[in-house]
Amino acid sequence: MIINLFISIAIFIVSSYYWIINLSSQNLGLKSAESKLSNALTNVPFLSEVSLFLIGVLLSIILLGIIAHIISKNLEVLFHRSLSYFTCLVITWCLLFLSIMGLSSNLYPNLLFSHSSWDNTLLLIITISVLFLLLLSSVLTKKNTKLICAILLILVIPELTNINLTKFNDYEAKPNIFIVGIDSLNVDEINITRTPFLEKFIKKSNHLPNTYTHIARTFPSWVTVLTGKHPITNKARLNLTNFNNINLEETLPYYLKNEGYKNYYIQDERRFNNIDERFYFDHVIGPPATAAEFLLSKVIDFPLVTLLSELKFFQLFIPHIQNNRAAWATYRPERFSKEIENNLASSKHPIFSAAHFTLPHWPYKVNGQIVDNGTNYKKYLKTLTLVDKQIQNYFAILERKNLLKNAIVFMISDHGESFARRSDVPINSNSEIINLAGHGTTIISGSQYKVLLSFEYIKDEISIDFKSINPSLNFALSDVTPTIIDLLNLNITTKFDGMSILKVDKQRSIPLESSLQPMFNSKGTIDLNGTIKKNSHLFEVNSLGKVVVKKKVYRDAVASKQRGIIFDKWQISHYPEYDSKIYITDLNKNLLYDINSFSDNNLKNKLIKDLCSHFESDIIITIISQCINLNYAKSNSKKVL
């Protein structure tokens, strides 16, 4: 056995060396991980998670050596020792090598070690069948049978937990509640051909076409959804905001938990949206939202480790590789759907589930389906079709579990996506100055800030039509929680910034903010290294092993934001990076005006007043000169954080 263990270790060392010398060609963003984890080496949760991962890697190496030992010994016995031990070793390791490389190339064609020449179906079937028969032959040889049984018990028993036998009761006292989110969804791209399921849901539900996110980033958007408050109120104004800034007892999961609901949070990429059990969710489905994930999810190119991470036993040590959209080369939407089905289970309580699907997010790549062919925009459109199918599968799961007979269902997006096209900004804007790709980069981009909001209230399998809703009015993601509270008729004393959709009867002022801006290269794609260099000083690892924005730089990051207000068909936008310029947009005509050339003084003054009033606590740090002139800056301004 010692020789086989030595060979297994040697193969891993050689593979590691090859992986390291090819790091520069893989664009793994390790500099990003390094910058965010600068203080991690003294962080106990981080070190514990890394240690557990390394134990998992070591166990995979040992397991391979043990399997090789069993097979080589069986070969000797089966051939009555006519084959030398060396020959048996060569045959064994050739079979293992071909099986591992073939299976890895088949399941994960985009990994460093994968190649189409290994992905030979016939060869794969033959090698795996031979290996299986040689392992099974231990029954005949009566060699290592106890060892095989022990391995099978360790690996197979955890897999039995994948069999979901839970049957949901018809719980009719309170409706189940589902918020289904889609990342980076440009609402203009929804149509019956590309996104048939979404299109059909919109047609049959209460659809609000003029809905906006306050900040076009995932974490601030979801905190807004779950609190019913604007970012300036709930304090979640950047991704990876420290949870200490947020009142977690003024959230929808907290209210519903007190009403007897069992709360689930589901997301397939939690790197920058680290909502977890601290938000009063009972169960989180998805990859870890830890500092270690930034590093360990990069280690996906080792075929043996990646293949074994498919097994429940190894997921105890290596949960970072599977069902993780950030590790796109191993992510399979159908596998994540199965993970949801296996873990979404309750028969005694009504369900609240907040689910977020991130396939349309950059880099617009999916394992084995979308890689590097075509422009970013064309790849993005393909991800929309994939996420539409994934959401359809999610609803099918809910149907099978009998959860939609009495339910409130919200279909939302956290933000849109821009590709710096002329159609992504007002038609007369200066694209060289303010037309940036991505999301959260420029608040005048409707492609970034306009979002999906459609909801359905199902009672006894019949959808209720709320005729009092005026879909021509403007709405925001902060309206979701107040609406759910209203529909459930809960006695909640919290003051919301948003309103119940059922009670909105006139236009309101809707605030907008930008976020941190990535850097782009000449091709219009994200300059990863430039962005890392620009923002690397922002992050640290907290005592829980989570990546958070440093408190000492949070204020400066907030100060650099663009700020705006939407009222009716008008939007006012303040750009501190362009000499504190202010623009006004006619949203109906899609036209942009410099505030100095805008002729309607009454409307201009109203919009300025709304802007200054909402961002009153920011005026000093961001120097909105028009607000200072209007005496909105006070000597003792409110704290921003």
Question: Can you describe what's shown?
Answer:
It contains 24 helices and 18 strands. The protein is of the alpha/beta class and 641 residues long. β17 (581-586) and β18 form a beta hairpin. The longest helix is centred in the N-terminal third of the chain and has 35 residues, at 44-78. It is elongated. It starts with a helix and ends in a 12-residue tail after the last helix. The model is unreliable at 519-524 and 633-641 (pLDDT under 50).
Which key features would you list for this structure?
18 strands, five-stranded antiparallel beta sheet, 641 residues, single chain, elongated, alpha/beta, disordered C terminus
